[in-house]
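COMPLEX REQUEST
Ligand: MTE
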Amino acid sequence: MTHAMHATRGDTLRSAAAGLSASFLAVGLAELIAAVVEPSASPFAVIGSGLIDLAPSWAKDTAIALFGTGDKAALIVGIALVLVVVAAGAGILELRRSGIGAVILGALGALAVVAAMIRPGAGPFAWLPGLVAGLVAVLILRMLIRRLRPVAGLGPDDEDRRRFLVWTAGVAAAGAVALIVGNVARGASRSIEAVRAALRLPKAARAAAAVPAGAELAIPGLAPVVTPNAEFYRIDTALIVPQVDPADWSLRIHGMVDREVEITWDELLAMPMQESDVTLACVSNEVGGSLIGNARWLGLPVRELLARAGVDADADMVLSTSTSADGFTASTPIEALTDDRDALLAIGMNGEPLPIEHGFPVRMVVPGLYGYVSATKWVTQLEVTRFDRTKAYWTTRGWSDHGPIKLQSRIDVPRRGQSIQAGDAVIAGMAWQQHVGIAGVEVRIDDGPWRAAELATAISTDTWVQWSLDWTAESGAHTVECRALSVVGETQTSDPAAPAPDGAQGWHRIDVSVA
Ligand SMILES: Nc1nc2c(c(=O)[nH]1)N[C@H]1C(S)=C(S)[C@@H](COP(=O)(O)O)O[C@H]1N2
Ligand SMILES: [Mo]
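STATUS: Structure written out below.
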């Protein structure tokens, strides 16, 4: 037993600190290098993205249910916690048996290298941050632990321990500096935000009519009928938001077409733009959930570009692809892109260029379909193809091929579990079935008779609509439920279903206590 030793409790803590500070410096340097040479190759981002892609769809659902649109922050925190445990463990093991901790940290570096290189659109230096992280972690860990080791059978003396602490603190400080410099460097690459801010949108050739006055009931607590961009839900698989410069952007239409078409940003802007109000919804939205929002989009109808390319009669699907650094795909039934609905290649959202996290510079928006089969952000390719030839990001993960939005309604006021005063009260919410339209909403209290709510003026059949009902609330505990009726005579089903594989269904039911 020449290598092994019995560490004191103090040395165990010190060795854990060595593992932590070595790993902290490694991560800091890797983030710094990534920020400079290849922002999307940050080890955190590539490992996180890899986990997102590997995760089964129930895990996506659970993450969204637990953390909502903070699911990505939760993932990063999770990875950081795992790293802290592994790094401390590597330090402790390295002190006990030279080489073990180094192998563990080296393996983490190798994992980061592999994860970076297999990302779609990985650049030529994607391997560099992970490699540097691995080497730095191994060398620094060995250097620090050497200072804790007994010399010729004696334990390290106090002077050695003091020097160990100075070195460990120095390494951690260097890691902090690297992280800060890396962040500043990353900020400099945020210039796409400046490009966006300087853009002026073209005027719509076909402008939308003003939102009708009766569309907004203006009830406190009720979702506004037009969702401000800053409050619009965000769902995507991109840990690092793709930064696409319009000057470098182009869209290629290929596959089962008569002639391939490629258009640049300037060519797109020169085409006649159309404005339309469309409510976007996520298939992962639970009954009563908030993964839905409505905006006024400005863009070019997709059918005009498809007509230019000439679509083969056998094609039944268009596979839209996001920028290569992202690699998301969606499979949209071709009728939804060629019929008379306003399926857009959108560049504007509520009067502004698309926010970067909502797909700048160009995304798809298709009324009536959930986002996972239609709303590709940072879109760069449309492949005209067939459902029996290829699948898309979520449809290879068990979600349904066709994603028409289900008839749904939600209670916003009162909030679930809220207690209100007895007397005159109001119940209000939203109802939607995009591209079909809402004919009415009914409300029932304590399993009593269904009563018709008052419907606000719909902006169009492609948008959600507000509803409200006056209620004389009597004190006690009550349940409130709602259900929507569509313009084609359907009544929202009471039969509950989870989001997977084709959208949640059932009635929204809330408990309210009246004082
Ligand atoms: N590039 C890209 N586009 C994407 C996604 C994605 O993960 N990547 N997610 C889709 C899903 S599932 C939804 S619900 C909508 C959400 O759009 P939003 O974030 O603008 O609300 O974007 C769609 N477009
Ligand atoms: Mo979604």
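REMARKS: The pocket of MTE (ligand 1) is lined by residues 232-238, 280, 282, 322, 326, 328, 358, 371-372, 375-378 (CB under 6 Å). The first helix runs from residue 9 to 37.
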